[in-house]
Design a protein that fits this description.
Layout: H1 14-19, H2 22-49, H3 55-59, H4 70-74, E1 119-120, E2 125-126, H5 135-138, H6 151-166, H7 196-201, H8 208-213, H9 215-218, E3 220-221, H10 223-230, H11 234-238, E4 246-248, E5 259-263, H12 264-275, H13 279-323, E6 348-349, E7 355-358, E8 365-368
Antiparallel strand pairs: 1-2, 3-5, 4-5, 6-7, 7-8
């Protein structure tokens, strides 16, 4: 048999290393240092020609595992990076330029709104920038304090506005001694100190003392009272030439419509003289409407009672048909065709001491009182 081939033994490399002479080792080291110097020179020239715009591009100019110098990490840093450094030292606050810092990538869709500058349009909150041509957004509400006013100035402005509306204080019309015949006086006491607000709204010149003394003439009526007591319709109450009214905020709820207040003697003059003719005619009309209302209520009750009787009669007929008997009238005995007659048993006292007797056939119970 032929012998199998065997793997030759490994040759040692010690002979190749021992073969290098000191001159060769020196030449190798010199070439390595020259190559490193040339590489550093080429990298420096590349950085000067194409300066890095960010940290990633600057790190590409260095070999893997090589530490970057401090000048490479701090040079050409953009002010938009979120690194808490500012390239503009003239900005107030020194470092940390908040205006130039951009949000992180995960928060780029986040928008911060100033709700003090928004208006509730009942369909969403909108700002002036969203719709610059909308006059409602540009017009400022009368009850909101302007931004340029202090709280003290705003309170003084509100006080002057209320006095101007009421024609009181410094806005009250002046009185002159020379032109007494042109002055408006109270219709009751001829006083010069009249309520100018009432004179402007109702056209009634009366002073405050006469209003308090004569409430049967100068008291104010609400819209509901004028409709129910004097039988005046809504179109008549809304006609300001016919019946002037004074508007006040609703005391029950601020979001409701304003109250419409009417002067009592003006409402009575219109109701008695123009609409109904007299107070007796108004009373007769009021009684007639009340009678009609009562009659309609009774008719409604009777109609419902008739419907209930019909339903009960139909139900009794159905039950008698199921029991095998023929049809009958309301109150007939079910299943026998005749009218039911109660057969009362002996009275028995209940817990309250009252005598109670029941029907032997149908079980109906009634209380029995002895005198």
């Amino acid at each position: 048999m032929s012998e199998r081939p065997s793997t030759p033994p490994q040759t040692s490399n010690t002979q190749s290393h021992d073969a290098l002479t000191p001159e060769q080792v020196k030449r190798i080291e010199i070439n390595r240092l020259k190559a490193k110097a040339l590489r550093d020179q080429h990298e420096a020239e590349a950085r000067k020609k194409a300066p890095a715009t960010n940290s990633n591009s600057s790190s590409n100019n260095f070999a893997a595992g090589q530490k970057r110098p401090y000048s490479a990490t701090t040079a050409n840093v953009s002010s938009t990076l979120q690194d808490a450094r500012s390239t503009d030292s003239s900005k107030p606050g020194g470092f940390r330029p908040l205006d130039s810092i951009q949000p992180a990538r995960n928060f780029t869709k986040f928008v911060e709104y100033d709700f003090s500058k928004m208006t509730d349009t009942k369909g969403g909150f909108m700002t002036v920038e969203d719709d610059p041509h909308n006059k409602v957004l540009h017009s400022q509400k009368a009850d909101e304090k302007p931004a340029h006013m202090t709280m003290k100035e705003w309170e003084r402005h509100q006080l002057l506005r209320s006095l101007r509306e009421q024609k009181a204080g410094p806005f009250e019309p002046g009185l002159s001694v020379l032109k007494k015949e042109e002055h408006k006086v109270c219709r009751e006491c001829a006083s010069l100190e009249i309520d100018w607000k009432w004179e402007d709204v109702f056209g009634c010149a009366v002073c405050n003392s006469c209003k308090d003394k004569l409430p049967e003439k100068y008291s104010l009526l609400t819209k509901t009272e004028a409709k129910e007591d004097y039988l005046i319709t809504d179109p008549e109450l809304k006609d300001e030439e016919l019946l002037p009214h004074l508007e006040r905020p609703n005391p029950h709820k601020s979001t409701w419509n304003n109250m419409m207040l009417y002067l009592r003697y003006q409402v009575e003059e219109y109701a008695f003289n123009k609409k109904w003719g007299s107070a007796e005619a108004l009373d007769a009309e009021f009684e007639r409407r009340e009678g009609d209302k009562k009659r309609r209520k009774e008719d409604k009750f009777k109609s419902k009672l008739e419907e209930l009787k019909k339903k009960t009669r139909v139900e009794a007929y159905r039950r008698s048909r199921k029991a095998g008997g023929g049809g009958g009238k309301f109150g007939d005995e079910i299943g026998k065709g005749g009218k039911h007659t109660h057969v009362w048993g002996r009275p028995v006292e209940n817990e309250e001491g009252t005598g109670v007797k029941s029907c032997v056939e149908c079980g109906m119970e009634v209380e029995e009182l002895e005198f």
